Amino acid sequence: MGKKTHVAHVLTPAEAIPLIRRVAFRLARRLPPQVQVDDLIGAGWIGYIQACKRFDPTRGSTFEQYAEYRVRGAMLDELRQIDPYGRDTRAWLRKIDA
């Protein structure tokens, strides 16, 4: 048997829009202007869908808290994929600039 889903706890897509936009704009403030907020929002939807599939209310958090965590993680994953440098190189470049 498959995993049970907890549909009653999940935000509707219309309710998720403000959450995804809030996370995207908060993250975009710390990024260079070349990064498009729309790209972050697109990645955020992937995180929202994953949150809907994997949320377990017995773990003690609300769906909104869990979804925000997954949305932000999906956005960071997208940024890592499009970044031409690895994390070590990026840290080295920051060290040089300082």
Order of helices and strands: HHHH
What is Rg?
16 Å
- Model regions low in confidence, pLDDT < 50 over at least 5 residues: none
How many β-strand stretches? 0
Helix content: 55-70%
Instruction: Based on Cα principal axes, name the global outline.
Output: elongated
Task: Explain this structure.
This protein is mainly α. The chain has helices at 13-28, 37-54, 63-82, 87-97. The longest helix is centred in the last third of the chain and has 20 residues, at 63-82. The termini are far apart. The mean pLDDT is 90.
Short structural summary:
This protein is mainly α and 98 residues long.
Summary tags:
98 residues, mainly alpha, elongated, 4 helices
Present the secondary structure layout.
Blueprint: H1 13-28, H2 37-54, H3 63-82, H4 87-97
